[in-house]
Design a protein that fits this description.
- It contains 9 helices and 17 strands.
- The protein has 338 residues and is α/β, with parallel strands linked by helices.
- It has 2 domains: 5-188, 3-Layer(aba) Sandwich (Rossmann fold), CATH 3.40.50.620; 203-331, 3-Layer(aba) Sandwich (Rossmann fold).
- The radius of gyration is 22 Å and the shape is elongated.
- The protein binds flavin-adenine dinucleotide.
């Protein structure tokens, strides 16, 4: 038996980051296929209070490094700690969400450990014969999905996009062993000092794309300020969020965080409504979890129609106006609010 699968636990607000919950949930099946233990690493300042949460999502063990020197977050220090722990305990696999922090500390740990790291995976599995980790991610500009393996070096390391796997709490769970690790003095060296902390204002709050039930998407075919405003109104009236394809965010018509796809948000709404979206793979990779896809495009050959449950061939501008009118009639409110 090897030394297990490690999921790096990140904290957001008052609990485990959603992507950590998703990774732990997914890793339960990897653990069965591999026949090794599943551990969650909690490394940071004031993280001990979350040590029971990973067990809800299926962790067998928690490895806890609680140290005040870990505030503020420094990717160098964090990467070195992960590498040191991995050298000592020899995990078979290390997984982390592809968060901004992990994008910084995972390559540092990987370099120290002289192993491979596959970033932004969209799927993970264990090869039944060789027991190596199959790490699937978009390649060649998102036009194909490549499965990458790290045959020789250990640990096998991967980051995974948020929203790709489902977070599932166990109906029955109990707190397992928590291994507390003391940091060596040389690992307490944090190169950063926090001078001030200013949280983002509410104006900059990013909508919850991942948890949205309705996602309306503006494609290049509707890349005009007036149409985007109407789509905002439609999204709001349907209780959803407004996203965009990359050309639309590149044009600055919507903020960067509104981009849906391989290099943006991954969504899994009940209803996806795409206007003037062609259906290029880098975009559709991010909408595969949608239950119902409705696409409006003037080109009957647009690839999005291969994926759509309902396709409307026509001018999106006309459909948008019809929809705004219909929603206004239904809600009885003025166009401003719909
Ligand atoms: C490494 C890499 C990562 C990428 N990541 C992403 C990503 O995360 N998200 C993303 O979206 N893209 C991404 N892209 C870009 C992606 O390849 C496509 O270029 C992009 O998704 C296309 O956006 P679009 O469908 O809006 O535009 P287009 O492909 O130009 O399609 C516009 C569509 O609008 C239709 N249309 C035009 N006028 C009308 C009208 N009046 N009514 C109805 N339909 C109309 C046209 O028929 C056409 O099908 C990435 C590319 C690369 C190389």
């Amino acid at each position: 038996m090897g030394s297990g699968i490690w999921v790096i636990g990140e904290i957001e607000g008052y609990g485990l980051h959603p992507v950590t919950q998703e990774l732990l949930s997914k890793s339960r099946s990897l653990r069965e296929e591999l026949g090794e233990e599943l551990s969650c690493l909690l490394v940071g300042h004031d993280v001990a209070r979350f040590k029971e949460e990973p067990f809800r999502y299926g962790a067998d063990r928690v490895i806890l490094v609680e140290d005040s020197s870990l505030e503020p977050f420094s990717e160098t220090q964090f990467g070195k700690i992960i590498a040191e722990l991995a050298r000592e305990k020899g995990p078979t696999i290390i997984l982390s969400g592809a968060t901004e922090r992990a994008k910084a500390f995972m390559p540092i740990a990987q370099t120290i450990l002289e192993t491979g790291l596959t970033a932004n995976c969209m799927d993970l599995a264990i090869d039944p014969q060789t027991k190596v980790l199959l790490q699937t991610r978009p390649a060649y500009g998102g036009n194909l999905m490549a499965t990458i393996v790290c045959r020789e070096r250990r640990p096998q390391m991967a980051t995974v996009r948020a929203g790709v796997f489902k977070a599932e709490q166990l109906s029955e769970w109990k707190v397992g062993p928590v291994e507390e690790v003391e940091l060596k003095d040389e690992l307490r060296q944090n190169p950063l000092t926090q001078v001030a902390f200013e949280p983002k204002s509410d104006d900059e709050a990013i909508p919850d794309y991942k948890g949205a039930d309705v996602v309306v998407v503006a494609g290049r075919g509707v890349a005009e300020k007036g149409l985007i405003e109407k789509l905002k109104v439609i999204a709001q009236a349907l209780g959803g969020v407004l996203g965009a394809t990359r050309p639309v965010t590149d044009m600055g018509l919507l903020p960067r965080h509104a981009q849906i796809g391989q290099t943006g948000q991954v969504v899994s709404p009940t209803l996806y409504l795409g206007f003037g979206v062609s259906g290029a793979a880098p975009h559709t990779i991010g909408i595969q979890g949608s239950k119902v896809i409705v696409a409006v495009n003037k080109d009957p050959e647009a690839p999005i129609f291969k994926l759509a449950n309902y396709g409307i061939v026509g001018d999106a501008k006309e459909i948008i106006d019809l929809l705004v009118d219909r929603l206004r009639d239904r809600t009885g409110r003025g166009e401003q609010n719909v």
